[in-house]
Structure formats: structure tokens, C-alpha cells
């Protein structure tokens, strides 16, 4: 079963609409870092979870726990791309 990013459920299955929803959603999220196509951001109302960061590109999203950096949940990224994103998170993590 394919896992889709949370906003895909709201926007349906139309890929163009999903991308527009993702773009609008990213404009409203507190962005921590932008590297190439990746948006590193957080949701302000997730205080009940350990420290983590969300990374999105197009209609894909992955959550990384920060201590230690590890994948929390992946919504659609290929495993090799998740590894690349994890390395970016490690390179830019300042704690």
C-alpha cells in the first residue's frame, strides 16, 4: 500500500491540485531551511512529540527525529533520497 503525504488526503488524487496544496501549505509552515527542492519545516502544534523536523518536496514528506537523527515516518520518498535528506539534516543540524 502506497503512503501519501497528509495533505494529499485533503487535496484528493489530482497531482496538480496536490502540488498546489503543498505549495500553499509550505508558505504557511515555519521554514527552518531550504536546500534545493527541499523545505525543512515544523508544525507549531506538535508539542506532544519528541524534537523533529519535516522535510517536503512536491507532494512528498518525511519526518526525522532529531536526537539521534532517524526517520520517523516517510510519505513517498524513495529510500535512497531519504538517506540523502538525512545527510543534509545531519550537516545542518546545530544542537
Please state the overall shape, judged from the principal axes of the Cα atoms: globular
Bin the helical content.
Answer: 25-40%
Distance between the termini: 36 Å
Tell me the total number of β-strands.
5
Q: Which structural category fits the helices and strands? A: alpha+beta
SSE ordering: HHEEEEEH
Spans of 5+ residues with little confidence (pLDDT < 50)?
7-13, 17-24
Based on CA atoms alone, the radius of gyration comes out at: 13 Å
Q: What about the largest sheet?
A: 5 strands, antiparallel
Instruction: Domain count, please report it.
Output: 1
What amount of the residues lies in strands?
25-35%
Task: Give the averaged pLDDT, no decimals.
Answer: 77
Question: What do you see in this structure?
Answer:
This protein has helices at 6-11, 15-28, 79-92; strands at 31-35, 38-41, 52-57, 60-66, 69-75. The protein is of the alpha+beta class. The termini are far apart. The model is unreliable at 7-13 and 17-24 (pLDDT under 50).
What is this entry, summarized?
The protein has 95 residues and is of the alpha+beta class. Helix content is 36%, strand content 31%.
